[in-house]
Amino acid sequence: MSALGYLTSIGSSGAPVAHGGEGAGMSVLPLEGASCRRLDADDVVFLEGDEAERVHEIVQGVVRLCRLLPDGRRAVLGFRHPGDLLGLCSGGRHDCTAEAVTPVVLRSCRLSSLAALAEASAETRRRLSSLVWREIDATRTNLLVLGRMSALERVASFLVALSRQHGHATRLHLPMSRTDIADHLGLTIETVSRTLTQMRRRGLIALPSPHLAILLCPDALRDLAAADEPDDAAPRRAWAA
Amino acid sequence: MSALGYLTSIGSSGAPVAHGGEGAGMSVLPLEGASCRRLDADDVVFLEGDEAERVHEIVQGVVRLCRLLPDGRRAVLGFRHPGDLLGLCSGGRHDCTAEAVTPVVLRSCRLSSLAALAEASAETRRRLSSLVWREIDATRTNLLVLGRMSALERVASFLVALSRQHGHATRLHLPMSRTDIADHLGLTIETVSRTLTQMRRRGLIALPSPHLAILLCPDALRDLAAADEPDDAAPRRAWAA
DNA sequence: CGTCACTTTGAAAGCTTTCAATAGGAGTGG
DNA sequence: CCACTCCTATTGAAAGCTTTCAAAGTGACG
After folding, report:
1. Rounded to whole angstroms, what are the CA distances from B36 to A188, B15, B29, B128?
2. Cβ contact (<8 Å) for A148 and B75?
3. What is the pLDDT of residue A34?
4. Using alpha carbons only, how large is chain A's radius of gyration in Å?
């Protein structure tokens, strides 16, 4: 649109590919000379404080970003899916830890390579900028969720967000543990569990197994989760850092 | 440092100018052809959803960024001070509302002008990138605060962060209302007030007036606020969007 | 000096957490 | 193939912290 280059671009990204399927769309960023890496569940991609040297694209699996307090309390900043980028940052060090939630396949390249690409291509800058601003937007949404919503609303938000990320699917696979969800929503695992049960009893969702949720009343859930952006917004491609 | 250009730069900004003083340092961004604007307390700089057309630099005063739920519940994402930028964003629309907390003086230019400047200058891109990543870092810190800290710790975090922004001052002017603080910390005004009183009774702070706090035991407060980055970090210049 | 807005304080209620115990499933070994 | 163990999720009951509802205190302003 405007000449703002990487500052203004937003709707620039490719087709609104829903992940969940693994090798779904083409890479948001051409990671030339990329190497692949395979991780088991709970393996660390990088640690908060680590020198940021590589950027990763998730090919398969789910990754969580988190931060810790000195006493061990944890915040899961978000979950990243296939197609998302991990490890982007401006400083020399990561400001959060990234860990595999499931077995993960990563394709990565040096941060400096991506930097060079960005330096040479306004289009790449535009895409990266778009990614970063979506991250800010999403994080701000989470701030509203944690600061002002009840447990029921928080869980609804989580489910609705996950659903939207997967093309508004109503059948949701929840690869992360209750602990991960709790740390993401600022609740305890017991409260997450109880809330899910409550939703089930109300007929809002079905829970065939702890890691599979089926949204029976997406609209009702959406109302509970009203924190998120209006639904007419273009599907936002998550990403990472 | 590396060739990552606007992707990696971080410590690039000028002297760690503490704001609070008004025209303290030179502008982070050269806003050529900038126009000035004067606002009263509670005036709106821009609204969430507005077309993003201008970027503002705060010359004087304090601004709050906030988001609302449909039913009126509010989250104050943060407070911005002289020297900070307002209105930066990648999309066509603002993702939050900016309002004056105190009377404010703004210097602003068209977003497209800044865009052009960025497109032409790698150094500008670097600075902007640094700003954006600091915003992400700060917002993530807030997520940990809201998700995992008690009322006492949240208020301590707030005071410590404010103190650090002002060059580790122990005499803090709190221009914002208890409501603003509460919405920023995910608490009620009563809890904020009670917590402040509790800190006063414990001898952690003094409160000569509702809008003036004096940190009597900065170290104890810092311990309570352990969520924030270690104190040896370079003073981070806040900013905005 | 009265009004208004904001802050502080008090008391009860409520929601989430904490502590504990009971299910459920996957993997291992007999 | 079944028993046993371990880990995670669910459920229950009591405790706790924050909120809600109310009222009193404080300061600015006309």
Report:
1. 49, 24, 15, 21
2. yes
3. 80
4. 18
In one-letter notation, the amino acid at residue A162 is L
Q: Are A101 and A178 in contact (CB under 8 A)?
A: no
pLDDT tens across B77-119, in order?
A: 999 999 999 999 987 999 999 999 999 999 999 999 999 999 9
A91 and B185: CB-CB below 8 Å? no
Torsion sign across C-alpha atoms B131, B126, B164, A67: positive
Residue A31: per-residue pLDDT: 57
Pick from A228, A189, A206: nearest CA to A76: A189
Q: Is B8 on the interface with A (CB under 8 A)?
A: yes
The region, left, alpha or beta by phi > 0 then psi within -120 to 50, assigned to residue B17 is beta
SS (H, E, C) chain A: CCCCHHHCCCCCCCCCCCCCCCCCCCCCCCCCCCEEEEECCCCEEECCCCECCEEEEEEECCEEEEEECCCCCEEEEEEECCCCEECCCCCCECCCEEEECCCEEEEEEEHHHHHHHHHHCHHHHHHHHHHHHHHHHHHHHHHHHHHHCCHHHHHHHHHHHHHHHCCCCCEEECCCCHHHHHHHHCCCHHHHHHHHHHHHHCCCEEEEECCEEEECCHHHHHHHCCCCCCCCCCCCCCCCC
Which residue is nearest nucleotide D18, judged by alpha carbon to C1' distance?
Answer: B191
Of all nucleotides, the one whose C1′ comes closest to residue B187's CA is D18
- Give the pLDDT means over successive 10-residue stretches in chain A (241 positions): 33 38 47 84 97 96 98 98 95 95 96 93 94 97 98 98 97 98 98 98 98 98 82 45 51
Average pLDDT over residues B144-148: 98
- Does the predicted model carry a pTM greater than 0.90? no
